[in-house]
Amino acid sequence: MNTKKMTTIAMLAPFIVSLLTANTALAVSKNGTTPAITPDEAVNIRVYKSTNQGVVHVATMAQAEDFLFNVVPREGFGSGSIINSSGYILTNNHVVAGAQKVRITLYDGTNLPADVVGADAANDIAVLKITPPAGMKLTAIPLGDSANLEVGRRVFAIGNPFGLDRTLTQGIISSIGRTLGTGGGRLIKGIIQTDAAINPGNSGGPLLDTQGKMIGINTAIFSRAGQSAGIGFAIPINIAKRLIPELIAHHAIVRPDLGILQVQQTDKGLRVVTVDPNGPAAQAGIKGRKLVVSQQGPFTVQSIDYASADIINSIDNQPVRTPDDLLSYIDNKQAGQIVTLGVLRQGKLTKIPVKLVSSNTQ
Question: Is the pTM of this model over 0.70?
Answer without folding.
Answer: yes
